[in-house]
């Protein structure tokens, strides 16, 4: 399967010792670097979305618009309802502190009515209507709000960002493939004479293609690995400083599966470049007699 | 099939891909060639190259000799007519079927066509390697061939460091290294001195005696006369000047006027 790659020194001399496309390894290195970072971002976003989604999936809040007069009783009513894993009242001070972001010091004014909140997590099979019925006995204006409703737009944004990251990875891969096609065509032009001579003495298209395929595979491998290692270094620095993974993902990190995916990307890029080069060279050769 | 070569005696047979003996190395039947939309550079070519014969292709510059050779060594397809090579109709054969036929042909190009970044050794070894020979099977024959053309001590030299004559000899060594069934040479002695020209023609005739059909395009009447038994194909303005006489023995060189 890889016999085309392992050729004799004599065969490897056929296209000369100079690199094929000149800047090709560097272009591929930049692509590989960018793809790795974007893929890492996408994977981290996916992990963040997963963490958030799992965290809020079973989380709800009881909102008591009238304030905290019945807060303790309502909290106990929720906590004792079947299927409720935990329930905790949000202290009024915390509510006012949150409101300070929008209202300033006036948020601390006792004249300002502040709704009370009880956060609670449910287990599978819990009935929200039963819980709602219990708290409404204490405060008819009470209502239950799912956390996913408030965090939903954020999750949608994260999903969108993942899609953007995935799209960018595809775009960059396509750009890398295009660069390889250009490099292959340039190499064909550079070595047109050698190809004509080889065809003239009976070389098949596949024999000629293997020479170019091998050269481009080496270029692509060197470029992919260089870019991949640089990206790994950057990711390690960012992760080490907790600036990237920590702040961006709220604690979500890249797992083993993600790291394996990232480690495979340079090899995938090399494979893509080699396949594209082979197709481009074969196609170009078919135009000759 | 043209009457021109009907009844021509055959010096030997080659074997086609079907395993049957082939009467002629190459047969041209009403062949024409044009480049792009230009006028035909070759017209109505009808002839047959007998297996094991020695041919000189002559004619003035621009007569179409190189184009005819290109058709012979499968670098060009005819725009009309039929060409059979080694018993196979190849005018419209799919291109992927051509390499095995090309390996049976040795070509000496007018401009040598040596790969400049390869040594003389690697250039000569190229046909063997393309044919799949292993490195250990390449060394001996290539050294022997280089010695034969007087370049044993220049094996590692690149073409750019060789003289025109030396490059010509490397090109010839490359063309014959595979013991081709058909050897096509375009002005093969144009860049060598008389002694080397005779030596190279000696190589060609030796190959011819071993059964290789040889076609040499040349203007050199002296060379033609020095090759007894060779036959002449003369082209003028893209056509054979005397279709009924294309396979005759070469004329004597014109005597110098007293």
Fold blueprint:
The complex is a heterodimer of chains A (289) and B (258).
Chain A (H helix, E strand, L loop, with lengths): L8 H4 L11 H34 L1 E6 L6 H9 L4 E7 L1 H12 L12 E7 L5 H11 L4 E4 H44 L1 H9 L4 H36 L4 H5 L6 H31 L3
Antiparallel strand pairs in A: 1-3, 1-4, 2-3
Helix pairs in contact in A: 2-6, 2-8, 2-10, 3-5, 6-10, 8-10
Chain B lengths: L13 E2 L5 E2 L1 E11 L5 E11 L3 E5 L6 H8 L7 E6 L2 E2 L9 H4 L2 E4 L11 H11 L4 H14 L15 H13 L5 E5 L7 H16 L3 E5 L3 H5 L5 E6 L2 E2 L18
Parallel strand pairs in B: 5-10, 5-11, 8-9, 9-10
Antiparallel strand pairs in B: 1-2, 3-4, 3-6, 6-7, 11-12
Helix pairs in contact in B: 3-4, 3-5
How many structural domains does the protein architecture of chain A include? 2
Helix/strand-derived category of chain B reads: alpha/beta
Strand composition percent of chain A:
5-15%
Instruction: Determine the N-to-C terminus distance of chain B.
Output: 45 Å
Mean pLDDT of chain A: 84
Q: Could you give the order of the helices and strands of chain A?
A: HHEHEHEHEHHHHH
Number-wise, the strands of chain A total 4
In the predicted model, the low-confidence regions of chain A spanning at least 5 consecutive residues are none
Biggest contact: A-B, 23 and 30 residues
């Amino acid at each position: 399967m890889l016999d085309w790659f392992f050729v004799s020194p004599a065969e490897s001399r056929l296209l000369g010792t100079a690199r094929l496309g000149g800047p090709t390894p560097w272009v591929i290195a930049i692509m590989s670097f960018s793809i790795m970072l974007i893929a890492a971002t996408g994977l981290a976003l996916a992990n963040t979305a997963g963490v958030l989604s799992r965290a809020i999936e079973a989380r709800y809040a009881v909102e008591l618009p009238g304030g905290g007069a019945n807060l303790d009783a309502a909290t106990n009513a929720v906590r004792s309802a079947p299927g409720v894993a935990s329930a905790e009242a949000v202290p009024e001070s915390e509510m006012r502190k949150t409101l300070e972001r929008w209202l300033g010091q006036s948020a601390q004014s006792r004249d300002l009515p502040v709704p009370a909140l009880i956060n609670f997590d449910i287990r599978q099979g819990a009935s929200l209507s039963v819980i709602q019925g219990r708290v409404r006995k204490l405060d008819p204006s009470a209502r239950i709000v799912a956390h996913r409703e408030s965090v939903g737009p954020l999750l949608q944004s994260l999903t969108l960002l993942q899609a953007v990251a995935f799209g960018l990875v595809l775009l960059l891969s396509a750009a890398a493939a295009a660069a390889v096609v250009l490099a292959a065509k340039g190499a064909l032009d550079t070595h047109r004479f050698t190809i004509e001579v080889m065809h003239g003495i009976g070389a098949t298209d596949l024999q000629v293609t293997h020479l170019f395929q091998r050269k481009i595979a080496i270029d692509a491998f060197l470029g992919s690995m260089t870019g991949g290692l640089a990206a790994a270094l950057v990711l390690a620095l960012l992760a080490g400083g907790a600036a990237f993974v920590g702040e961006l993902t709220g604690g979500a990190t890249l797992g083993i599966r993600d790291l394996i995916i990232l480690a495979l990307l340079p090899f995938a890029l090399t494979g893509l470049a080699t396949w594209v080069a082979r197709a481009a060279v074969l196609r170009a050769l078919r135009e000759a007699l | 099939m043209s009457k021109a070569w009907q009844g021509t005696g055959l010096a030997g047979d080659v074997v086609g891909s079907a395993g049957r003996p082939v009467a002629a190395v190459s047969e041209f039947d009403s062949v024409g060639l044009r480049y792009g939309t230009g006028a035909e550079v070759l017209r109505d070519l009808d002839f047959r190259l007998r297996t094991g014969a020695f041919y000189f292709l002559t004619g003035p510059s621009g007569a179409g000799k190189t184009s005819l050779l290109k058709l012979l060594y499968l670098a060009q397809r005819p725009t009309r007519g039929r060409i059979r090579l080694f018993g196979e109709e190849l005018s419209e054969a799919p291109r992927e079927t051509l390499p095995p036929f090309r390996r049976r042909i040795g070509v000496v190009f007018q401009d040598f066509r040596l790969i400049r970044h390869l040594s003389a050794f690697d250039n000569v070894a190229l046909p063997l390697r393309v044919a799949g020979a292993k490195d250990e099977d390449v060394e001996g024959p290539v050294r022997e061939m280089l010695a034969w053309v007087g370049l044993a001590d220049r094996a590692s030299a690149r073409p750019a460091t060789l003289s025109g004559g030396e490059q010509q000899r490397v090109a010839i060594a490359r063309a014959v290294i595979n013991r081709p069934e058909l050897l096509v040479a375009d002005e093969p002695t144009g860049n060598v001195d008389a002694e080397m020209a005779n030596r190279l023609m000696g190589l060609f005739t030796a190959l011819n005696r071993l059964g290789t059909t040889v076609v040499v395009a040349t203007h050199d009447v002296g060379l033609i006369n020095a090759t007894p038994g060779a036959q002449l194909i003369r082209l003028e303005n893209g056509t054979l000047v005397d279709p009924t006489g294309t396979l005759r023995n070469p004329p004597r060189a014109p005597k110098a006027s007293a």
